Predict the structure.
Amino acid sequence: MLKALIRRLLAYHPDPRTAAVRERLAPMRRAERPYVPDYEGDLIFRLVADGATRECLEVGFGTGSTAAYMLAGIAAGGGGSVTSIDFSAANFNHLGKALIAGDKRHTLLEENSNRALPRLFAENRTFDFIYVDGWKTFDHLAMEAYFLARMLRTGGVILFDDAYMPSVGRVISLLKKFYGFEEIGYAANGQGFRLRLWLAIVFRTQRRPYRALKKRHDLADLPVENDWNFDAPLR
């Protein structure tokens, strides 16, 4: 009873600007389907809409719910495009295709990110916002991080889902220590103390279920790019 009361008091109030996205997703949500929760979707929307974002990339498409929030964000911010990478049709991406069908601002690359990302990198593609929710073994994520860190424009943001997982945490630490990425201010993006407390109660951990980092430096200027003997964290 007390826990239920606390949850009601701490209940998240979604951003009014994302009402249309939530209405589209509501009839499709099922417990067994990985639709992005409202609070994480709102963070995606805010980071895209309020960050002068034009080009978005995501690794992992699935139900298409994260792409829907990105598309709403670029529409609110003045326009742009979203590119999604997802190699597994068995993992819900038929739902995503139905949700995003006909939206010319969206491109779906149905292949493994270990093929798609090197090609996008070779094409000199760059992005303002990147969402990472694909295959989460450490070696695969580290491979992705290499390309994503270089394709993300300076000042852009990369958001990791399932940040409580050890492999994801290690990649986040790598980006912060060696590439100078900095964690965003969550409260300034609608992710205040009340939501943090609610998430701690629901997930029974102080670790955030998702984390977002801003790219502060052009990597060409960092020792990790130029010094073969560099192995110390940035100061």
Remarks:
- Strands lie at 55-59, 81-85, 106-109, 127-132, 152-161, 182-183, 210-214.
- The chain has a mean pLDDT of 91.
